[in-house]
């Protein structure tokens, strides 16, 4: 089978993949609000002879939805065009006949009006997170356009400025590694937490928590073994025999057997789950830990952290996004919260809490699908690149063959899902089904097929898409 890794798939795994559980991390820092604009009319005067507008730029620090004078950090002035020069004097009228007045001279031509266009600028080279484009010019018919039609056409544009939104905040990342004996004498785990912001010469937004990006570290250690039980008491000496012929002395009693060893201490268990919107509005993880001791009516030593056994809970939240945070289609339908975006795709969390990557034109890139039976039938599987890894339990991948989304089977739906090395009989690649008669296996995830409505998307997505 071809082992194909597509850009959309890798991006989704990178953005949404979560490390196995840990605890002790702090909430991610909020991203800074994006740049906001304020447009003020300018009356005719010294600044603009014929009037115009002043575009104020700044950060809405108090979050009231408007820029105050103190929040404006930069201004741009756009003046209306001055009136055109007076037309040349008309030709003298002919002399009147018999005392009649001569005809009036012709009027001079009017000056061209100044026009302004304010349009939305998509994310790209001019504005990384999108923004606004401000075009100005005279309605004079330059460039072969129609003069005095009240429309600022392309050939009449004399100046262009851009007002851009702020970029997204950074994602919280965690890593879980074996703890050193100096930190956990009986074994345990080290939990590192930090923002994917490229601190200390690291690479920002690469989905990997590098050493320089670590902001806090915690240790989750196993309990020590219980103490051995104390030795049993010695038995009492036997009594002397009765007199007669001197009887033989009774045998001494044997030493008592050693007491049984004390019971081992309970194992520390850690569980990581997707954080609720109430605890982490912009997504994150909830980490719980406790001893496997059966507290609260649970079953001791069953390797499952039950509700009554939880001793510690910590929420590790993503920072809130700067700039536009909602992806909306042309019908004003909110598709979800924006988690990551580039020039080709945008990754979102849908209203039903599924993680989806969508193209800017509202389409989805079909991903590879493997099947347990020939002819692309049987159980469908999510296939990425034949490597053992984990993905988010709510990650959804578009399947062209199934006309729906593949979501990994995970009844608990509260932890990262590990891939399995499984056999397959056929696979769908770029819309073509190929049977595989060999006995090989690949790393993949058994999946369920969900409709767009179940995932939380409309049946029809109308482009263009915008971030608001």
Distance between the termini: 42 Å
Rough outline = elongated
Number of helices: 2
Rg computed from alpha carbons, rounded to a whole number of angstroms:
37 Å
- Proportion in helices: under 10%
The major beta sheet can be summarized as:
8 strands, antiparallel
Strand content: 25-35%
Low-confidence runs: 1-29
Helix-and-strand structural type: mainly beta
Order of helices and strands: HEEEEEEEEEEEEEEEEEEEEEEEEEEHE
The number of strands is: 27
**Overall residue-averaged pLDDT value:** 80
Task: Walk me through the structure.
The strands form seven sheets. Strands 17, 18, 20, 21, 23, 24, 25 and 26 form an eight-stranded antiparallel beta sheet that branches. Helices cover 3% and strands 34% of the residues. With 468 residues, it is mainly β. Residues 1-29 have low confidence and may be disordered. It is elongated and about 180 Å long. The protein has two helices and 27 strands. Strand 13 (326-328) and strand 14 (334-341) form a beta hairpin.
Give the topology.
Layout: H1 7-16, E1 35-42, E2 52-59, E3 72-79, E4 114-121, E5 131-138, E6 159-164, E7 172-178, E8 188-195, E9 214-221, E10 268-274, E11 284-291, E12 312-317, E13 326-328, E14 334-341, E15 345-349, E16 355-359, E17 369-373, E18 377-383, E19 390-391, E20 397-399, E21 404-408, E22 417-418, E23 420-423, E24 426-429, E25 432-435, E26 441-450, H2 452-455, E27 466-467
Antiparallel strand pairs: 1-2, 2-3, 4-5, 5-6, 7-8, 8-9, 10-11, 11-12, 13-14, 13-27, 14-15, 15-16, 17-18, 17-24, 18-26, 19-22, 20-21, 21-26, 23-26, 24-25
């Amino acid at each position: 089978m071809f082992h194909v890794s597509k850009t959309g798939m890798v991006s989704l795994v990178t953005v949404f993949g979560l490390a196995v559980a840990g605890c002790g991390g702090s909430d991610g820092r909020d991203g800074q609000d994006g740049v906001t604009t304020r447009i003020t009319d300018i009356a005719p005067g010294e600044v603009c002879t014929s009037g115009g507008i002043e575009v104020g730029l700044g950060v809405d620090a108090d979050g009231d939805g408007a820029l105050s004078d103190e929040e404006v950090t930069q201004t741009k002035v756009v003046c209306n065009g001055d009136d055109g020069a007076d037309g040349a004097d008309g030709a003298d009228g002919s002399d009147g006949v018999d005392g009649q007045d001569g005809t009036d001279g012709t009027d001079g031509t009017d000056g061209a009006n100044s026009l302004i266009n304010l349009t939305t600028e998509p994310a790209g080279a001019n504005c990384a997170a999108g923004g606004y484009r401000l075009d100005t010019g005279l309605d004079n018919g330059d460039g072969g356009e129609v003069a005095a039609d009240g429309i600022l056409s392309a050939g009449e544009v004399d100046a262009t400025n851009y007002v851009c939104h702020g970029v997204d905040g950074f994602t919280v990342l965690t890593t879980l590694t074996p703890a050193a004996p100096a930190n956990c004498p009986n074994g345990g785990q080290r939990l590192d937490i930090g923002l994917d912001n490229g601190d200390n010469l690291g690479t920002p937004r690469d989905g990997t928590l590098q050493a320089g990006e670590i902001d806090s570290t915690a240790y989750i250690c196993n309990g020590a073994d219980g103490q051995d039980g104390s030795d049993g008491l010695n038995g009492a000496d036997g009594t002397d025999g009765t007199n007669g012929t001197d009887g033989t002395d009774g045998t001494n009693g044997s030493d008592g057997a050693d007491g049984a060893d004390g019971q081992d201490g309970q194992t520390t268990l850690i569980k990581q789950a997707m954080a609720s919107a109430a605890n982490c509005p912009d997504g994150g993880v909830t980490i719980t830990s406790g001893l496997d001791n059966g507290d609260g009516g649970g079953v001791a030593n069953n390797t499952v952290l039950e509700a009554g056994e939880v001793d510690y809970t910590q929420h590790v939240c993503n920072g809130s996004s700067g700039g536009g945070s909602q992806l909306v289609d042309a019908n004003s339908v909110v598709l979800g919260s924006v988690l990551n975006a580039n020039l080709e795709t945008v990754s979102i969390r849908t209203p039903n809490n599924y993680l989806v990557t969508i193209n800017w034109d509202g389409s989805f890139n079909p991903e590879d699908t493997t099947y347990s039976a020939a002819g692309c039938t049987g159980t469908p599987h999510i296939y990425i690149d034949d490597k053992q890894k984990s993905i988010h339990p709510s990650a959804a991948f578009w399947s062209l063959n199934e006309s729906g989304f593949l979501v990994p089977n995970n009844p608990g739906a509260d932890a990262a899902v590990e891939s399995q090395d499984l056999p397959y009989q056929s696979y769908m690649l770029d819309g073509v089904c190929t049977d595989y008669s060999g006995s090989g296996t690949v790393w993949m995830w058994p999946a369920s097929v969900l409709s767009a409505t179940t995932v939380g998307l409309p049946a029809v997505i109308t482009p263009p898409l915008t971030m608001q």
